[in-house]
From TrEMBL:
Start and end residues of each TonB-dependent receptor plug domain: 110-222
Listed GO MF terms: carbohydrate binding; siderophore uptake transmembrane transporter activity
Name by which UniProt lists this protein: Outer membrane receptor proteins, mostly Fe transport
Keyword Nucleotidyltransferase: no
Family matches, as PROSITE patterns: TONB_DEPENDENT_REC_3 (PS52016)
Biological process terms in GO annotation: siderophore transmembrane transport
Record domain TonB-dependent receptor-like beta-barrel: where: 330-705
Keyword Transmembrane (UniProt): yes
Similarity section: Belongs to the TonB-dependent receptor family.
Superkingdom, natural source: Bacteria
Length: 749
């Protein structure tokens, strides 16, 4: 009987058809990625890929109406007939139109775990991006704080986490990992400044540990950025602003749009140079250069290739964190510094290639290789004269890293009775070979070495994921991911030192998610999954009791819906348990364990078209986090936010005028376990205005419109000032940007 059932399924699969097609801008011929494609009067659908290509499989023979629609483009449909065991093709051309949210549907049939896709697609068109610091906050509910005026990676706050520089949020760009394991300054360190904002095309957001594609650091979630496949136009852009700020950007198309009968291909280069002295009393002399080259092409009817290379370099002086008493006692101004010789430099070179091949039996093989060369050099002074009353406590942290990786996925659609099962099998490895060091220094002159050595850390991972429609409305997504880490650290000064050693650890992470499409305007979900974040290799090999891969367990319930045609809302009630909250203390080169934590929260994102030209958006994120094993009154998670919110109003006029008024808010919160020191919250207003025509754009942006005195990074730190009799524990902070205006002008060609 089983054999007969299997033969029946095979025969049924053999009688199905495939529909392939492409979607492009009707005016320019530019391929459109991310456009929704579905069959009229049939459940399910797909989205166009980076080359505007799409594929629908497992179709019974017959005549179908194919409909494509995307934000900012008019929907188009075409009738096509498909025959058994054949592949039919269709080309759809969409005209640009006025943006209207009434056209939006909420389901994501190809990637149901990307429940924030609709929100992100709207933000891509409406939310202004003026600098690299604006990229990470595109993730709904994510707030950043800068430590050093733009030179270091930002401090990340998301879903009730002070994720430091990325310990609990996974970031990638074009498949390149951004988070650095066993970094000299912080575990999961995610410096995103090597990305040119004007080249970013899409963002896929995944909250919580529910998606098998992500392993390390994806406890609170993950953000996948992709750069543009091609440029709409070449562009030269110049910016000038307060505090000696200057920026120049150039983006140049290298290939013309190809004729319809030719295989699509695109290539472009981009470059960015930035200089600013920033707003601190001591000039920051901040300089950054970014370069990017990218090619994407269809090598054959079944194979496409993407090749990307980029180069980034930055150097700066920094004022560092300052104590409240230094301002109160008149020792320094709000924008002054205790140690004006802080600062550093960093660079990153990336190379990656992605080969995607369509295989028989409706399968796709995607393979990516990548390499990164990374160098980091930072001088900091967190405690001033606490440990050395004469010379001070300045330290130098360095990281010289080679990063190698491979990621492969094999996806295939299977006919299971009348249902389609989509499976994805993934296999990957990442090797970090780095030399890291922590040294004492005085005014950037190294005095002695605290700890230095070479880290070899390799992760091998694999996962299997399946998505099937149990009914026309109910979709099940289940997955199992396995990771194995190999850690090795060799201390420079002696191989026999107890700090040197090797260790290994594995982790298995199951995921289970359910999605129910009530209608094209309402999708509900229940999600659950296990995840983890890794410990620093130095702590792992030197401490046999160290928690190597602390587990995270998360679950949530929520939905994406349209209460009225012009509004899109995403809401989720979530819980996350973390086995061990690890904090890397960079100035001491050690990892501190806070023990088990529990967080619960509520996320709300809403996008509303008030009129034909005016749009409103808001992200509201509530959370409550506590240390599980500590008594009441001593169980606060330091710096964990309980309320963050971002939102604003955006005007898009048909004549080319655009404007946006936006706010940022984070609440005051405990800076230590007993809540005796509080980090101060803030509410800020920013404004952007632009005027765009076919050949040029002019604009202006203002940060902190009301010139509020606010704190960015904040910590409860024990320090001693020069000639101070005893140490003092109090709030230390980096002051936030005062009123800051910037003008820009672009030419398109």
């Amino acid at each position: 009987m089983l054999a007969a059932w299997g033969n029946g399924l095979a025969a049924q699969a053999q009688n199905t058809a495939v529909l392939r097609g492409s979607v492009a801008d009707s005016a320019s011929g530019r391929p459109l990625s991310g456009v929704s494609v579905r069959l009229v009067d049939r459940v399910g659908g797909t989205v166009a890929d980076e080359l505007g290509q799409f594929r629908l499989t497992g179709l019974p023979p017959g005549t179908y109406v194919v409909r494509a629609s995307g934000l900012g483009f008019g929907a188009r449909q075409q009738t096509v007939m498909v025959a058994a065991n054949q592949t039919a093709t269709v080309a759809l051309r969409l005209p640009a139109t006025t943006l209207t949210l009434a056209e939006v549907t909420v389901a994501q049939p190809r990637d149901p775990n990307q429940s924030l896709a609709v929100i992100s697609n709207i933000d891509k068109l409406l939310r202004p991006v003026n600098s690299a610091q604006d990229l990470l906050p595109l993730v709904p509910g994510l707030v950043i704080a800068q430590h050093a005026g733009g030179g270091k990676a930002e401090q990340i706050f998301v879903r009730g986490f002070d994720a430091d520089h990325g310990t609990d949020f996974n970031v990638s760009i074009d498949g390149l990992p951004v988070n650095m394991v066993s970094h000299a300054h912080g575990q999961g360190y995610a410096d995103f400044h090597f990305v040119i904002p004007e080249t970013v095309d899409q963002l896929r957001v995944y909250k919580g540990p529910y998606t098998a594609r992500f392993g390390d650091f994806a406890t609170a979630g993950a953000g996948e950025f992709t750069t543009k496949t091609r440029l709409d136009q070449s562009q030269v852009k110049l910016e000038v602003g307060r505090f000696d700020t200057r920026r120049a950007v150039a983006l140049l198309n290298l290939l013309p749009v190809r004729a319809a009968k030719q295989r699509p291909a695109a290539a472009y280069v981009a470059a960015e140079y930035t200089f600013t002295n920033s707003y601190f009393d001591a000039k920051q002399h901040f300089k950054r250069f970014n370069g990017l080259a990218k090619y994407t092409g269809q090598l054959s009817d079944r194979t496409s290739l993407m090749v990307l290379g980029s180069q980034f370099g930055s150097q700066w002086d920094a004022s560092g964190q300052i104590p409240e008493r230094g301002i109160r006692d008149g020792l320094i101004s709000r924008f002054g510094s205790i140690d004006p010789t802080e600062g550093g430099s960093t660079s990153r070179t990336n190379a990656t290639a992605v080969l995607t091949t369509d295989l028989p039996h409706n399968a796709v093989l995607r393979q990516q290789v990548y390499y990164t060369r990374y160098d980091f050099n930072l001088f900091s002074n967190f405690t001033f004269f606490l440990n050395d009353p004469v010379n001070g406590d300045q330290i130098r942290q360095t990281d010289a890293r080679n990063l190698y990786g491979y990621t492969g996925t094999y996806s295939r659609d299977w006919q299971v009775g009348s249902r389609m099962l989509r499976t994805v099998a993934g296999l990957g490895t990442r090797l970090d070979d780095t030399h890291i060091a922590l040294r004492n220094s005085v005014r950037r002159v190294v005095r002695d070495t605290i700890r230095a050595g070479r880290v070899y850390e390799q992760n091998v991972n694999g996962y299997l994921e399946g998505t099937i429609g149990l009914t026309d409305r109910l979709t099940l997504n289940a997955a199992l991911r396995a990771d194995y880490f190999r850690f090795a650290f060799r201390e420079d000064r002696t191989a026999a030192d107890s700090a040197s050693g090797k260790a290994g650890k594995g982790r298995v992470s199951p995921k289970l998610n359910l999605y129910y499409d009530v209608s094209p305007a309402v999708q509900l979900f229940v999600r659950s999954g296990f995840g983890f974040h890794s410990n620093d290799a130095r702590a792992v090999v030197s401490n046999a009791t160290a928690n190597v891969l602390p587990r995270a367990i998360g679950y949530e319930v929520g939905g994406t819906f349209k209460p009225v045609p012009a509004m899109v809302v995403n809401a989720a009630l979530w819980v996350l348990h973390l086995q061990d909250e690890l904090v890397y203390v960079g100035d001491e080169g050690v990892v501190e364990s806070a023990g088990r934590t529990r967080r619960l929260g509520f996320d709300l994102s809403a996008r509303y078209q008030l009129t034909r030209l005016l749009f409103a958006d808001v992200d509201l994120n509530l959370s409550r986090g506590r240390l599980v094993d500590e008594p009441d009154g001593a169980n606060r998670i330091p710096l964990a936010p309980s309320l963050t919110s971002i939102g604003g109003l955006t005007l898009r006029a048909p004549g080319g005028l655009g404007a946006s008024l936006r706010y940022r808010h984070i609440d005051s919160r405990a800076a230590n376990e007993d809540n005796s020191v509080r980090a101060r919250g803030y509410f800020l207003l920013d404004a952007v205005v632009s005027y765009t025509k076919s050949r040029f754009q002019v604009g202006a942006s203002i940060e902190n419109l009301l010139n509020v005195a606010w704190n960015q990074a904040q910590f409860d730190t024990t320090t001693r000032l020069r000639n101070e009799a005893a140490p003092v524990s109090e709030l230390h902070f980096t002051p936030g940007t005062p009123f800051y205006a910037k003008l820009n002008a672009s030419v398109f060609f």
